[in-house]
Each structure stands twice: as structure tokens, then as C-alpha cells.
């Protein structure tokens, strides 16, 4: 023992971060599949949801390119996470989503055309339909990470009401640099709240690569800052992602408290249609990432266990394209909101002193 | 009828509403066991338990966000921030979420919450404990901003704020917390929102203020009365929305207006009120609209703060100059 | 002489000053390799290297705090926030630190920093990308707040802001970034701070605006000229401190004033200017001071934004009504 | 292997938190002392600094109780941390202190009377004297935690200038709940900055006990959120605290990057003179804490190794009281600043348009 290493130095806490993956990039099984994934119909359903989402995503980009849609944030390559999340959550749970979780939102009842309507700049798109789980979900927040601490209040209310519901707060890797993310993480266990923090680590925050975003080797380890379990999952393995999320949701529902899940994926598209990723990342990197595409991977897996073939594939692709077309039609058929709408949901009742402003807009007519 | 000071009035209002509305909670730093740094929440923990009286970690941004999350689930969240100078970390949440959820979801998600904080100086408190944040919040669409000036208004307006279905920022007059008492019933009667109050009728000058400055303004009016200058006293009370009609009606009668605010001069509520007069009351004005205010400086620390906060002398000086420029009876 | 649009002007000013002052750095999200979401910082990384062109993690509060830390060490820190709607997390740092260190240390620690951000709507951008934050900053003692309206002013005022020894908030006219070009020398000449600019002499009405709204305001003046109404155009440029003298002198000449702002009406710069007129220019006013502004609503999303932003028609309407209330030549 | 535990779950990261202590509460050695602590003069010096600080602290409280000082935040019981820090830092390093680090500030040249002058409400107290290390230090920040990210900018500037200096950002346990703390922690290693984050965990944030402040078992483990080393030290063991801080400072100076040190201590006084801790904590708890008092501990240690006795003790106490008296006199002799001073350091040059305001204050006279 040297004097600079006193025996009185004792270990008081230790942690580890694990990563889960069932199916590798080529569709090979790395472990026996969980129950839900041993059911061919389940696999086919997950596959269909991912393909539908991708077709709509493709359509949205082309609508933007042809001037029929505003700036759009594509979910290309991240379909497995939204799909796994949408299938893992119970209807009564509350989703506070990130803006690439389209598949989860669709599964919970957000009409795909509303997603387009949002990016066209129409607030009505966030009034999710009654009678669907999405009706008690949140719209995503453009100010990065600011929605995450809302989960603390929502989960606290759920606990107060003695309900068996779980709140999922989703964000990207860049979002984990903001104090909002941390303040939620740090406090969630103080009240042992039923919250699952889901980070879609797609390796980029616009032009900022993950390794320059934070000194932490993994995002999952940030869970230690809140004294809660943190784990990684291969976010391009829809089976592993659903497995890990179902486990986390069950734990939260059973009163075991909050958890953090970091889902590893890759943003295959530009950040948004307003971005040009070629400025800051290599084609080579993107090509490599395509090899880990979640759709290709599940298809290979399904073919390997003989529950998918060319015929099914062709039929599904056609179906998805048709669906995306009708989504686009439905979106294009939406007339713009009335200008006075900017006053009508501002307060429950518009203050008397603002009435003249509403009248002025009214008189100027409702043209768009 | 019993008499209460402002901090007691706030405490009573919180107790009354916690009893009346099971779906109400209070949250903030040191509000539970400690009863709040100004004792506004004393007794709540014992009466309503730790589930509804929530001591939070030290994070104002979290407190605002948590109040938002709670309120979206139909829980009336009443948050305390220990001093208004510590509200800046809440601004992102308040502006980009609390004030917007109703509008962006077209009414589906709402935020019936209140964020309370002591506001203003004059108690020789430490650095950052004496700021005036009226404009910071009053400029934000989708909010209400209240600044009560006395115990009964603190009581009635806080009840109104909690019951309002939209977010309310409630700025309390720190130096009046224990300065004087008022007699009123603890009967749960809320006061009307969005309205100013005429505290005293007068003929020559309309004196407009709110919050703690109403106190010095009233003393000034008393002194001016002895000089034969009759002041009409308006307590703005609601900084957003602003009740210009009441102020315009008063100035239509007096023809003169002096506005008193503790906040720095530039971009303060006094400017908003003066602008309303310049647009809708110009023809009634005999004299320039004067603003008596804090200076455009950082609020000085304790030993110099009294040189920053408007006092009776500065208010009287402004009123006299208005009278000089437009003598009474001309 | 070459011509440049506003984004090019900003890029030139940044290049010029980075060359001139080795102790200057720029920092922000995506400003390096990516050249900034609006391309304002294109080329800086290649010319000056990653040490002085700092891509930061995604945290606006950190960016402001880091700029403060850098500036206290004599480094001129010029930070970019991607849109003014994302500046709220910087407010605590800007108000409680950047604007105060000089004063609280009696000059020992200073913060020569600039925080730039695109401000305002009109480009059909996503939610939270079109806000107007003038008042949020202009009310803070210890700051300067600039809002250039065209390429040459963006160039000259940004240079002045960077060279100024105190913190400056620099709000750029988003929708004018590429709207039009101007001819000027890239000679490193700064414009004066704290002063408004008279863009056009006129006799009947003083039209006051700043930033992107100067554009519609100028068009309105052109149209009104055809109707025989001669407008004097004032570009406020500096929202803090405000150059009221220039505005008062103009109104002393014209007797009429209309102020145009994109921000919501309540508590905006237009109110501060109108208050200054009500106090110091009242006797020169023939007619009420009208404010043409955004409404007291949340900025609508893209499909309705043009109903919120003042247009030429609304500006002309206000000017005509002022003329009606005080006809020319009476 | 059950299906719910796939073999494909692999460990990708792990961490541990250690605690260092050389001298236990009764002054017994737990390990061989580091070099500096094997020098009796060094021990006596550390002891004197702690006693002087405590005597001034006691004086400050009594001045406040007799209406001669504003609200005051006592450092009672935390003297070891400030002392260790002040002795561990190099003159050229930069201290961004918390408000109970008086001993460190005194060691770096802040005149004790300035500390009192600050709490009396006089900005001049933060204009630390030229020719002392404190002149390039920061005053502490009342808005909790907001000063911590300043360290990122200061350290970046130091790196840019290729200087061999280290920045110490100090705060309390409550401060670690704020996003500011985390944003600094998360980013510090991105640039491998020479920063030491020092958290004085005194178990309370006003009335909030440490265990309700965050779900994290230790504050030190929050370092994982930034991928940097985090350790605990017994903050009432001035030897261990100085040892750990010197090690962290050396590492940062040698380019090994940022570190987090959590010093365990206890706030023996009310939060401030405006607080009454009896409302929320038991006398019993405080009595127990007194047993771990850092001054008592070092004295016992020094007596055990025969470098302290009653005579030395009596002499030192008398000296410290005398010193505290003269500090109080120096403080009471300070005349208030001129009212116009509120304008004179606001900007380098007061804007023309504000001159009339300054004149108004001038004309109203400079009385206080
Ligand atoms: C507070 C805030 N700052 C900046 C932006 C601009 N912005 C939009 S998305 C984005 C990157 C987000 O990265 P990440 O969290 O990883 O999500 P991803 O886009 O990769 O899914 C940025 C900087 C914003 N929307 N909000
Ligand atoms: C942003 C902010 N919020 C609240 C306060 C009020 N306040 C002053 S000290 C304190 C507790 C700080 O606790 P800790 O960080 O543990 O430091 P300690 O006082 O224990 O040394 C609080 C809540 C403040 N000064 N700043
Ligand atoms: Mg990302
Ligand atoms: Mg503490």
C-alpha cells in the first residue's frame, strides 16, 4: 500500500449498463426469442407496421419536395422503436413522444394525415381523436427535451389517483444534453414514479455526432444520475426493443419505479427536409447504417423461420403504397383553419379586452 | 370579523381551496415541513398530507414542468417559487408549454395552474431576492398575471387564480406580507379576474399602481390631499389582461395620470398603460403621462435599494409637476 | 462595390472580426461543420478551426453560460441560438449573470459577449421557430438589444455589438435573411450603438419600426406617398437603450406617429415608444399614437401566420386613420 | 437460460464510486497519512485556518442577531472543505465558489470583512483585491447552481490560451438537482476541460434532506452522466479532503480532464440566520453530527501524534477571537456606497439616454 492509496478508500456504489439484442443485422437469432416473437402473426404485424410507417414517411418527404408540405422530420430507419413502443404500451398509458415516433403515434390512434397536417402548420392536428389512446397522449414538443419533465407531473398525478398507468417520455440523444432531461431523471425516483424514459439514440443531433454530444460513453449510464436502472437495446431489432420496453413498462406498472432505455439506431434521412446531411457525414457511414435497417432485419429473420416470402412481401409493399396514397389524399383535402382560430383556444374564454383583436381578424376575412 | 396580513391571507386561501378541491396540490421548495420560506404554506402538510403538499427538489424548471404535467391531468397545481428572481428557469416551460398547450391542441390539453412568488424589494433581502418580474410574464400570450396589493385582494385573487382554467402567474407584494392587516371573511369568495380596482375617488389626478407600490402611492395621495390635490387611486391588480377601460374612464374624469411602478422603467407595465392612454385617451389628457419607477439598473443590494424603489417624495413630485403643467381648474 | 443579403452580411461581419480579433470565438449548435441552420457561420470552421468555432452540445442554457465564462476571461464570445424561440433557457444566465457581473463586481468581471438569433416569422417555419422576443430582453437592465433591418445595418451593428464591452442580444430579421440585397463595403466599419436611423424624411406621419417589419413599413410608406401622405421612416435598430430623442424630434416635426411591430401588442417596444411620446411629446401630438402589431395570441403555425403579422394594408389603415383624426394642414 | 433472459444481454459499461477517509470521527488514523499531513506544521496550519474561519463565522452570526448584519449563511461544520480547497488550489487556478466556502476565499485573499460587507448588501464586497488569487476568482452566486456552467467557458478559455490552470466549481447537494449542474457535467469531457466539480454534501438544502433531493444513492455517481470520474470523500476529514482535491487538481492540470468530488459533511447551523432548522430536523441528529465536527477531529488527531496540547489550543482560540473582533471592527467601519454607484458599473459607459436617471439620484443626495 502506497501512501497515495490509503486502505481507507472503500467502494460505496457500483453500476453496470447492459445491452439487449435478439436478432443481428443479418436476421440471425442470438438467443431464444421471447414469447410474443415466437408467434408468426406477431412478427408479421410488427413488420407491417414498420413498412406502413416507412411508406407514409416516404410520401411525406415527396410532398415536401413538391411544395405540398412544410419542413418535415423523417423517421427513416427508426421505425422499429416506434413500432415496439406502440405495441408495448397499454391503451391507458400516456405517451409523451419525440417527433420521430410516428409509428407509436399511429398505433395509438393518431391519423397519419394529422401528422402531415402538423408539418403543414395546422394546430388542429394536435387535437388527437377521442376514443383512441392518443386522445390522452401529448403532441411532441419542438423545444427539445422540454417535454420530458412533464412526465414527472403526469406520473405524479397518476400515482395520486392510484391508477395503474405508466408514462413514457421519449426523446433523442441530443435531448439528453439538456437540463430538462436530467431534472426529470434525477427526481423520478424520489417519488418512485411510473415513468419510462426512452432515448432514441440515432447517433446524430442535426450535425452533432453522438460522441461530441456528451462525455458519457453511453446514454443509458446517465440513469445513475437518478439512481435508476439504465439499459441499452438494439433499437433496430424490433423484437429486442419491444421486449425491453415491455419489461420496463411492467416494472413501472408494478411499482418498481422509473427506468431509462437507450435504443441504439441511426437517422438514415437528413435531419429534416430543410437539412442536407452530406455537409457533415459521409455517404459511407450512411451506407453502413443501411445494412442495419430494422425492416430488412426483421424480414430476413421472418424468412429464416419461414413465415415470410416474396409473395407476401410484394403484396404488403403494394398495400403500403396504396395506404400512403390515401393518407396523402386525406391530408390534401384538409382546408386551412379559420384565422380567428388563433383566438379561440388561447384561453377557455377570451378576455373581454382582446375581443376587438378577434373582431379585426374576423373583419379582414377568413381567406388563406 | 378577523383581521389578517397578506401572508396570512394567502395561507388562508390555500387552506380554503385545498379543503374545497380534492384535486388541488401545492408544490415547491421547502413548502411542506418548513411551511415555506415566508410561511405561506404553514399548516398545509399537517392538514392535507405529503401527497398533496409536495416538497420538490431544488429545480425551478422542474417545478414549472411538474405543475404543467399535473395540471394536464386535471390536478390544480399551485407552485411556489421562493423569490421571483428565481423564476427565470421557469420561463421556457411557462411560455412554450403552460401558455400554449390549450391553443396548440385546440383545447384538448389545458394547464389550470398557478405559480406564486414574492415579488419586489424593500426588505433588505440578499442578492436576487428583490426583483420585479411583471413584464417578464405579462408579455406572454396565454397567461394571466396578477399582482395583489393587500390582504383581501391577495385572498380573493388567489382563489380566483386557482379556480381559473388557464395558467396564472401570481406575484405577491413581498414587503407587504406582514406590513399591515385587513379585516375580511375567510368565506372562499373569489374576486373578479381581469379587472382593476378603484381604491379612492378623486378629481384632479389618476394615480395608477399595483402590488406593493400601492402602499406608497396611497401615502402620496394622502399627502397630496393636504395640498388640495385630489387623487383617484387605481389598483391595476391584473397586469394581464390589463383593464385599460377602468383607467381610461378615470383619466377621462381627471385629465391627468401618473403611474407608479417599482420595476425598472423601460418596458414596464407603466409604459403599457401610458401607451394605452396615448392611443385611446389622448384627447382627455391635459398633461403628459408621467411614470414614477425604478431605474433602468440592476436592483441594488440592500444598502442602496431604497434609492431605487420609488418613494412618497418621488410620487408627489411627479403629481405636482403634472398639476403645474396643467393647473387645476384651467 | 459588391451587394450582399442579410445572412451574407452577418457571415462577413463574423469573418472580419474573427480575422481582426484573435480573442474572438463563435459557439452554438451546428455552427461548425454545418455552417449554422441558416448558414450564418459558413466558412468559419475552415478559416479559423474548431478551437475558435465551437459546436456545442444541445443546451441553450449551457451555451449562454459558456459564453459568459469565456467572456469573463477576455474572450469575445459570439453565440448563436438557432431560433429566438429557443432563447428562454438562456434567460436566467443572461439576466442573473451576463447583465450583472460588471455591476456586482464593480467592474472587476465583465461579459463582452453577443448572443445572436433569428427572430420573427413569415417563413412558414415549424412551431416555435417564428417568435418575437424583443421585450423579453429589452426590459433587462445591463443589456443592449439590437434588431437590424437590412444587410448593411446587420453588418455594421453586429461589428459594433461584438466590439462592445458589454453583453448584447442581437435579434436578426429571419424573413429578410435572403429577401433582398444591399451594396456595401466589407471594410469592418461598425455602426453607432444606441441610435435610431431616419430612413426617409417625411412631413405628415412618423412611421416607426425595426427589424423585419421595416420592410412592410417601407412598402406602406411608398403606397401612402401615392395618396399624398408623406411618412418619415424611423428604424429604431436599438431596442435597448432606446433612442427616444430621434423619435421625439421626428414627431415634433410630423405631429403624428404610428409604430409597427410584429410582436404581440401588449408590453411590446411599440408601447415603450408610445409611452415616451405620452410623456415627452404629448404637446406635439395632433393625433393618438397608434400601434400596428401582432395580436396578443400565441404565434400561429405556418398556415395562419400571415393573419398575425402586420401587413401593408394594416399599416396603411392605421396611418389613414391618424390623418383622418388630424387632417393634414389643419 | 429462460426466454426472458437472453444470452444476448451483454455488459457494455460499468462504474464504481469510492470514498476516501484517513482520520475517523475520533481522530484515529485509518491509513498512513499522505506526505503533507505527516508535517506537524501543515496540520497546525490547517487547524488554525479552520478555527479562524469558525470564529469569524460565529462573529457574523452575532452581528446579524444584534441587527448589525443582514441575512447570513453560516459555514459552521463545513470548515474542513474550504480549508482543504484553499490549500489544494494553485494561485493561478480559478475558484467559482459556493457561499459556504469562506475559508477557501480567505486563503485566496478575500478579506473577511468583505464577506460581512456582502451580507450587509454592498456590491463593492465582490471587487476582490488586486494582487491576490481571489482577484481572478468569481463571487459566489445566489441563484443556486447557475454558476457551475460558467466553469465550462472559463476552462475553455484557459485551454484556448494554453494555460496550466484549473477551474474549481463548487456547490451544495441541493444544487445538483438543477439542470445547470448537469449541463456542465455532461459537456465538460467533450472538450476534456480542466475542471473540478466540488459538491459539499451537507445533507440538507434548507429543509430538504439529501435523500429526498434525488434518487441517486450518492452525488458522486452523477459523474457517470458526464463520463467522468466521481468520488466521495469524508468532508469533515480535512486531510482526506485536501488529499482528494490535490489529486483531482493535479489530474486536471495534467490534461486528464474533469472530475467530480462529493465531500460528505453536515450543516451544523440553520440554513441562514433567516431560517429555523428546528422546524424540520431533530436536535438528536444535530448532536450526532457535532461528534463528526472537523475541528474536533483534527485536534484529536494532532493530540494523538503529539503535535497539539492545551496550551497551544488556548493560545489559538484567543488569537482567533481577537482576529474575529478586528474583522468585525473593519466591517463596521465601512461607509455605505454612494447611491449613484448603481449606475456607474452597469455598463462600461452609461448610455446617454440614462444620464437623467443618474442625475435624479444625484440630486436626491447621497444620504443612506
Ligand atoms: C431547445 C431547442 N434547441 C434547438 C432546437 C433545434 N433542433 C431541432 S432538432 C435538433 C437536434 C435534436 O437531436 P436529437 O435529440 O438527437 O433528436 P433527433 O433529431 O436526432 O431525433 C435541434 C438542435 C430545438 N428544436 N429546440
Ligand atoms: C435558483 C434558486 N432557487 C432557490 C434558492 C433559495 N435557496 C437558497 S440556498 C437553497 C438550498 C441550497 O442547498 P444546497 O445546494 O445543498 O446548499 P447548502 O445551503 O446546503 O450549502 C435554496 C433553495 C436560490 N438561492 N436559488
Ligand atoms: Mg439524435
Ligand atoms: Mg446542502
Helix tally of chain B equals 11
Using only CA atoms, what is the Rg of chain A? Answer: 22 Å
**Helical content of chain B, roughly?**
25-40%
Major beta sheet summary of chain B: 7 strands, mixed
Q: What percentage of the residues of chain B does DSSP assign to strands (E)?
A: 15-25%
User: Which shape of chain B, going by the Cα principal axes?
Assistant: globular
Oligomer: heterotetramer
**Beta-sheet strand percentage of chain A?**
5-15%
Describe the protein in words:
The complex is a heterotetramer, with two copies of chain A (368 residues) and two copies of chain B (330 residues). Chain A is an alpha/beta fold and 368 residues long. In chain A, 40% of the residues lie in helices and 11% in strands. Chain A has 13 helices and eight strands. In chain A, the strands form two sheets. Chain A has a six-stranded parallel β-sheet with strand order 1-7-8-4-3-2, sandwiched between helices. In chain A, strands 5-6 form a two-stranded antiparallel sheet. The longest helix of chain A is centred in the first third of the chain and has 26 residues. Chain A is globular. The N and C termini of chain A lie far apart (80 Å). The mean pLDDT of chain A is 96. With 330 residues, chain B is α/β, with parallel strands linked by helices. Chain B is 35% helix and 20% strand. Chain B has a seven-stranded mixed β-sheet with strand order 3-2-4-5-7-6-12, sandwiched between helices. Chain B has a five-stranded mixed β-sheet with strand order 9-11-10-13-14, with helices on both faces. A two-stranded antiparallel ribbon of chain B has the order 1-8. In chain B, helix 1 runs parallel beside helix 7, helix 3 packs parallel to helix 4 and helix 9 packs across helix 10. The longest helix of chain B has 15 residues. The N and C termini of chain B lie far apart (46 Å). The model of chain B has no long low-confidence stretch (mean pLDDT 98). At the A-D interface, strand 1, helix 6 and helix 8 of A face strand 1, helix 6 and helix 8 of D. The complex binds thiamine diphosphate (2 copies) and magnesium ion (2 copies). One thiamine diphosphate (TPP) sits at the interface of chains D and B. One magnesium ion binds next to strand 5 of chain D.
Amino acid at each position: 500500500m502506497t501512501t497515495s492509496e490509503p486502505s481507507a478508500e472503500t467502494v460505496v456504489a457500483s453500476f453496470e449498463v447492459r445491452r439487449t439484442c435478439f436478432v443481428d443485422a443479418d436476421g440471425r437469432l442470438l438467443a431464444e426469442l421471447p414469447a410474443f416473437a415466437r408467434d408468426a402473426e406477431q412478427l408479421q404485424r410488427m413488420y407491417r407496421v414498420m413498412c406502413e410507417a416507412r411508406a407514409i414517411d416516404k410520401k411525406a418527404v415527396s410532398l415536401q419536395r413538391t411544395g405540398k408540405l412544410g419542413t418535415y422530420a423523417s423517421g427513416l430507419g427508426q421505425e422499429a422503436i416506434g413500432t415496439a413502443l406502440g405495441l408495448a404500451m397499454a391503451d391507458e398509458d400516456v405517451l409523451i413522444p419525440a417527433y420521430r415516433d410516428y409509428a407509436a403515434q399511429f398505433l395509438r390512434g393518431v391519423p397519419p394525415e394529422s401528422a402531415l397536417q402538423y408539418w403543414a402548420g395546422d394546430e388542429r392536428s394536435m387535437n388527437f381523436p377521442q376514443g383512441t389512446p392518443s386522445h390522452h397522449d401529448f403532441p411532441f414538443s419542438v423545444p427539445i427535451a422540454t417535454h420530458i419533465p412533464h412526465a414527472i407531473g403526469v406520473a405524479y398525478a397518476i400515482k395520486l389517483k392510484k391508477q395503474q398507468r405508466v408514462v413514457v417520455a421519449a426523446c433523442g440523444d441530443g435531448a439528453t444534453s439538456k437540463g430538462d432531461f436530467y431534472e426529470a431523471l434525477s427526481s423520478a425516483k424520489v417519488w418512485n414514479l411510473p415513468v419510462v424514459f426512452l432515448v432514441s439514440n440515432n447517433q446524430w443531433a442535426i450535425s452533432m455526432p453522438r460522441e461530441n454530444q456528451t462525455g458519457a460513453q453511453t446514454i443509458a449510464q446517465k440513469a445513475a444520475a437518478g439512481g435508476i436502472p439504465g439499459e441499452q437495446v438494439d433499437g433496430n431489432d424490433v423484437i429486442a426493443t419491444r421486449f425491453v420496453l415491455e419489461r420496463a413498462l411492467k416494472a413501472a406498472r408494478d411499482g418498481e419505479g422509473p427506468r431509462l432505455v437507450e435504443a441504439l439506431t441511426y437517422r438514415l434521412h437528413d435531419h429534416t427536409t430543410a437539412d442536407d446531411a452530406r455537409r457533415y457525414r459521409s455517404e459511407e457511414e450512411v451506407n453502413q447504417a443501411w445494412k442495419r435497417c430494422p425492416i430488412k432485419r426483421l424480414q430476413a429473420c421472418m424468412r429464416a423461420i419461414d413465415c415470410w416470402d416474396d409473395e407476401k412481401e410484394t403484396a404488403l409493399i403494394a398495400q403500403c403504397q396504396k395506404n400512403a396514397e390515401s393518407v396523402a389524399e386525406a391530408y390534401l383535402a384538409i382546408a386551412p383553419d379559420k384565422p380567428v382560430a388563433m383566438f379561440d383556444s388561447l384561453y377557455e374564454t377570451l378576455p373581454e379586452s382582446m375581443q376587438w383583436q378577434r373582431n379585426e381578424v374576423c373583419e379582414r376575412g377568413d381567406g388563406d | 370579523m378577523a383581521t389578517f396580513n397578506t401572508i396570512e391571507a394567502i395561507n388562508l386561501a390555500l387552506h380554503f381551496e385545498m379543503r374545497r378541491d380534492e384535486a388541488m396540490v401545492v408544490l415547491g421548495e421547502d413548502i411542506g415541513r418548513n411551511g415555506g420560506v415566508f410561511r405561506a404554506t404553514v399548516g398545509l402538510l399537517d392538514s392535507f398530507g405529503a401527497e398533496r403538499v409536495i416538497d420538490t427538489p431544488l429545480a425551478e424548471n422542474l417545478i414549472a414542468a411538474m405543475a404543467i404535467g399535473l395540471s394536464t391531468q386535471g390536478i390544480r397545481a399551485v407552485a411556489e417559487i421562493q423569490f421571483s428572481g428565481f423564476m427565470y428557469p421557469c420561463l421556457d416551460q411557462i411560455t412554450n408549454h403552460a401558455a400554449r398547450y390549450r391553443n396548440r391542441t385546440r383545447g384538448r390539453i389545458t394547464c389550470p395552474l398557478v405559480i406564486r412568488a414574492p415579488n419586489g424589494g424593500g426588505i433588505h433581502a440578499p442578492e436576487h431576492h428583490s426583483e420585479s418580474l411583471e413584464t417578464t410574464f405579462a408579455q406572454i400570450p396565454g397567461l394571466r398575471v396578477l399582482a395583489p396589493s393587500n390582504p383581501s385582494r391577495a385572498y380573493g385573487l388567489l382563489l380566483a387564480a386557482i379556480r381559473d382554467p388557464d395558467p396564472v402567474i401570481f406575484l405577491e407584494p413581498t414587503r407587504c406580507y406582514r406590513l399591515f392587516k385587513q379585516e375580511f371573511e375567510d368565506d372562499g369568495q373569489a374576486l373578479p379576474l381581469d379587472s382593476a380596482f378603484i381604491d379612492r375617488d378623486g378629481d384632479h389626478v389618476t394615480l395608477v399602481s399595483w402590488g406593493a407600490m400601492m402602499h406608497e402611492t396611497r401615502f402620496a395621495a394622502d399627502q397630496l390631499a393636504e395640498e388640495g390635490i385630489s387623487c383617484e387611486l387605481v389598483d391595476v391588480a391584473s397586469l394581464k389582461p390589463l383593464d385599460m377601460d377602468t383607467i381610461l374612464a378615470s383619466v377621462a374624469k381627471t385629465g391627468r395620470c401618473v403611474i407608479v411602478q417599482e420595476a425598472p422603467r423601460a418596458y414596464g407595465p407603466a409604459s403599457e398603460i401610458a401607451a394605452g392612454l396615448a392611443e385611446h385617451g389622448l384627447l382627455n389628457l391635459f398633461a403628459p403621462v408621467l411614470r414614477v419607477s425604478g431605474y433602468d439598473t440592476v436592483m441594488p443590494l440592500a444598502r442602496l435599494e431604497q434609492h431605487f424603489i420609488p418613494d412618497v417624495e418621488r410620487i408627489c413630485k411627479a403629481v405636482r409637476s403634472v398639476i403645474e403643467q396643467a393647473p387645476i381648474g384651467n
